[in-house]
Amino acid sequence: MKEHKGIVVLLSGGIDSATCLAEAAQKTERVIALNMFYGQKHDKEIECARWLADYYKAEYIELDISNLMQYSDCSLLKHSTKEIEHGSYHEELPDTYVPFRNGLLLSIAASIALSKDCDMVMYGAHKDDAIGSAYPDCSPGFYRDMGAAIYGGTARQVQVSAPYIQCNKADVVKRGLELNVPYEHTWSCYEGGDKPCGKCATCIDRAKAFEKNGVKDPYEQD
Amino acid sequence: MSKTVVLLRGGIDSTICLAKAVNDHGSENVTALNLFYGQNAKKELGVAKKIAEHYGVKYIPMDISKVMELSNTLLLHDNPVMPSADTYEKETDVPFRNGLMISVASAVAISIGADSVQFATHKDESAGLQYPDCRAEFFRAMANALDIGTDGSLSLETPFADMTKTDVMKLGKKLGVPFELTWSCYVNDDKPCGYCVGCTGRAKAFKELGIDDPLLAK
């Protein structure tokens, strides 16, 4: 059952990555949860990531890579002067697009996986993020090609896994409910407030995902 | 004319790559990106800056050493022990270094509105089996990932992929590259040590080109 030497999981603290962490914990006893801070406006998400890593007894690594994003003007980043747009994602590259984010995060994770003798990198990309090329680096095609680059570029020592790449967000939550993921300790809102704004794209998507599973978002029940 | 980002380390190959980019795109459309990842040769930083100034291109130095802090290779963290030539290749292998550098360069390129990233790798390098992220297949896969991951707005270019080191040197000579500004030694000193793999590889390259290394004549 524990078929891997070790798995590095990209853990933001949202529901997708939390589910992914639970998934990895099923597959190995050595999970490394990697949280990367790249200038996001919300500290809540990081608190959740720390809590989740502790809960799943994963080694937790926090890495500040904001200096690598200093030239970006994406609205998710703290130094940006743009307001976060309310409503759903755009059809073309949205303002919340962090340049080549998943390429960068996966490359860093692969490097750390090699250093830490892990044989897999896992991340929670799913179908909804890739709709209308909103985030091209969340697409199945990108997963395939980046996976090939990392597998080859690490001399076949590190595989990339995106277990939800063919799922939508509701499917991810369904899987997470099976795995008893403590969703009350996840954070999705793009705004940095004390409570989720309920209006931004991820708040709306989160609400829909729980609704489709016929359950109330446990965060709301706090 | 399209904008491009060149990964500039300050060695011979990346400097020739910069020279070619300036030749093809014009200096106003070229950005030289130097990534510092904790290597001993801090000299590289100053070297890359001087080369960028020589070509009148925009210069961006970026520190990615934090990402590398988990790595334990001899080349990093001011480790005073220098590897000997035979153990060097293994020990200086920063994990997935080229993948990481290309990903960082891609993020920068998108941010500044460039549509390509240039990486200097040549046939002699990719033929070696020691570094998996120096092989031609790796660069092909990475190029595909960049293309699809940016919805076709960014491409990875490896202009020397099919050239030998000597061919690259010849091109550099033709383009009038200031070889005296480049630096290949891994020891952090005023003068090249002459013994490390960087130095011995460089000496061989100049010998095959049939000219004296202008850096040593200084």
Could you characterize the architecture of this molecule?
- The complex is a heterodimer of chains A (222) and B (218).
- Chain A is of the alpha/beta class and 222 residues long.
- Chain A has helices at residues 15-27, 44-55, 101-115, 127-130, 140-153, 169-178, 201-212, and strands spanning 7-10, 31-37, 59-64, 120-122, 159-161.
- Chain A has a 5-stranded parallel sheet with strand order 3-2-1-4-5, with helices on both faces.
- In chain A, helix 1 links the parallel strand 1 and strand 2 (31-37).
- In chain A, 50% of the residues are buried.
- With 218 residues, chain B is α/β, with parallel strands linked by helices.
- Chain B is built from 9 helices and 5 strands, in the order βαβαβααβααβααα.
- In chain B, strand 1, helix 1 and strand 2 form a beta-alpha-beta unit.
- In chain B, helix 1 (12-25) runs parallel beside helix 2, helix 1 (12-25) packs across helix 7 (165-174) and helix 7 crosses helix 8 (197-209).
- The longest helix of chain B has 15 residues, at 97-111.
- The interface between A and B is large, with 44 and 43 residues.
What is this entry, summarized?
Chain A has 222 residues and is of the alpha/beta class. Chain A is 36% helix and 10% strand.
Query: What are the low-pLDDT stretches of chain B, counting only 5+ consecutive residues below 50?
Result: 72-91
Strand content of chain A: 5-15%
Order of helices and strands of chain B: EHEHEHHEHHEHHH
Shape of chain B: globular
